């Protein structure tokens, strides 16, 4: 495996690309001028959070399922720390160029993100991180991604929070929620070992896959409700990304535990529409 591909596969570059793709797509659907500063902030923030959460707090039991990733992280500890530092500093510097309301809004979600992985809370007499609270993990992850890649451009662009914003929020939420449940299914064995009661574990694998299918078909319907606002090229690109993810979900049902590149492809379906259109236009 080439060094560049290994870096792309085992670092959090895919999350950086997802932030860029979703953020760019949101700006285009909102008829905003492309803000490269805002896209840079989204990319830095996403990379920083996932590098902190996954690379530097990687649970030891993940080594049994993704040993190559665990080995790569251990062998490139200095690089991981450097990337974490650069993305953290970049996020902090760019943060101070945002509007004050955006700063307050994002600071609240930053505290939520810390609670998600690092700071435990009391839940029915147990000290749990938010991602260990049953049913809550995909909802929180989805909310954070919607806030970063859709609501932030809405606030920075001074958009009215009317029906247009609500429809886009529903599209974003259903799209990202399905992706989050998909990864919950991947982590069933890990969560079982860790004692986490996730949504996928509660539903069971087959019903979780059916939930993904139903959510994505609902998202396709919402995407085409957007047709009255124009953007036909963007709608086709969104639909293509959703159909690609539906196909990957079907393949996942047939294969108990695909390898890591398969999940990288699933992650990048969120970035696919935006990245396609960046190249197209």
Strand content: under 5%
- In spatial order, strands of the major sheet run 1-2
**N- and C-termini, Cα separation:** 33 Å
Largest sheet: 2 strands, antiparallel
- Overall geometric form: globular
Could you say which structural class the secondary elements and strand pairing correspond to? mainly alpha
Total strand segments: 2
Order of helices and strands: HHHHHHEEHHHHHHHH
Low-confidence stretches: none
- Give helix % range: over 70%
Based on the model shown, name its key terms.
281 residues; mainly alpha; two-stranded antiparallel ribbon; 14 helices; 2% strand
Question: What would you note in describing this structure?
Answer:
This protein has 281 residues and is mostly helical. It has one domain (3-280). It is built from 14 helices and 2 strands, in the order ααααααββαααααααα. It has helices at residues 3-10, 13-29, 36-55, 67-75, 77-95, 100-117, 136-156, 163-186, 188-194, 199-203, 205-225, 232-254, 260-268, 272-280, and strands at 121-123, 126-128. A two-stranded antiparallel sheet has the order 1-2. β1 (121-123) and β2 form a beta hairpin. α2 (13-29) crosses α14 and α12 runs antiparallel to α14. The protein is globular. The chain starts with a helix and ends with a helix.
Brief summary of the model shown:
With 281 residues, this protein is mainly α. The protein has helices spanning 3-10, 13-29, 36-55, 67-75, 77-95, 100-117, 136-156, 163-186, 188-194, 199-203, 205-225, 232-254, 260-268, 272-280, and strands at residues 121-123, 126-128. It has 14 helices and two strands.
């Amino acid at each position: 495996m080439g060094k560049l591909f290994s870096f792309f596969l085992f670092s959090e570059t895919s999350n950086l690309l997802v932030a860029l793709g979703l953020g760019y797509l949101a700006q285009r659907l909102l008829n905003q001028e492309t803000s490269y500063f805002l896209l840079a902030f989204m990319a830095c923030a996403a990379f920083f959070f996932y590098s902190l959460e996954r690379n530097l707090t990687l649970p030891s039991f993940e080594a049994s399922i993704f040993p190559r990733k665990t080995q790569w992280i251990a062998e490139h500890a200095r690089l991981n720390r450097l990337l974490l530092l650069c993305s953290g500093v970049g996020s902090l510097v760019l943060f101070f160029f945002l509007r004050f309301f955006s700063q307050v809004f994002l600071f609240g979600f930053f505290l939520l993100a810390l609670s998600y992985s690092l700071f435990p809370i009391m839940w029915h007499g147990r000290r749990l991180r938010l991602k260990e609270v049953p049913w809550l993990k995909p909802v929180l992850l989805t909310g954070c991604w919607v806030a970063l890649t859709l609501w932030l451009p809405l606030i920075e662009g001074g958009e009215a929070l009317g029906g247009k914003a609500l429809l886009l929020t529903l599209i974003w939420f259903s799209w990202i929620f399905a992706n989050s449940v998909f990864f919950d299914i991947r982590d069933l064995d890990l969560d079982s070992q860790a004692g986490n009661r996730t949504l996928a574990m509660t539903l069971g694998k087959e019903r979780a896959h059916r939930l993904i299918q139903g959510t994505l078909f609902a998202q396709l319907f919402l995407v085409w409700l957007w047709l009255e606002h124009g953007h036909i090229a963007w709608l086709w690109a969104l639909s293509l990304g959703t159909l690609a993810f539906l196909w990957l979900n079907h393949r996942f049902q047939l294969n108990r535990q695909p390898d890591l590149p398969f999940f990288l492809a699933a992650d990048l379906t969120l970035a696919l529409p935006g990245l396609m259109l960046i190249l197209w236009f």
